[in-house]
Amino acid sequence: MSDLTRASEVAEYLAKSLADEPDAVSVAINTDGDTPQIDVTVAQGDLGRVIGKRGRVANAFRTVVRAAAHLDAELVLQEIKNG
C-alpha cells in the first residue's frame, strides 16, 4: 500500500491556489496500476489555469508533487482533469 499523504496534500494545496473555484478541487490517490497515481479534478473553468500555456504550469505542478512523493519514498503519476 502506498502512502502518498504528503504528495496528495501538496497537489491539493497547489490546485486550490491556482483555481478560481477552490471548493471544486478534489484530489484522489489511485492505486489500481503498478505506479500510484494522484488524480486532481478541477472545475471546467479552472482547467486552463492549472494546465497553463503550453502545459508549463502543469509541468511545474508535476515536478513539485513528484518532489513531495519522493519525500514519501514513492513514485507517482499525476493526472489533471476537469470536473
Structure notes:
The protein is of the alpha+beta class and 83 residues long. It is built from three helices and three strands, in the order αββααβ. It has a three-stranded mixed beta sheet with strand order 1-2-3. A hairpin with a 6-residue loop joins strand 1 (26-30) and strand 2 (37-42). Helix 1 packs antiparallel against helix 3 (56-71). It is globular and about 30 Å long.
Q: TL;DR of this structure?
A:
It is built from three helices and three strands. The chain has 83 residues and is an alpha+beta fold.
Which percent bin holds the helix content? 40-55%
The main sheet orders its strands as 1-2-3
Structural class: alpha+beta
Rough shape? globular
What does the radius of gyration come to? 12 Å
Tell me the strand percentage band.
15-25%
**Biggest sheet, open or closed, and with what strands and sense?**
3 strands, mixed
Give average pLDDT, whole number.
86
Give the low-confidence spans.
none
Report the strand count.
Answer: 3
Distance between the termini: 27 Å
Number of helices: 3
* Order of helical and strand elements: HEEHHE
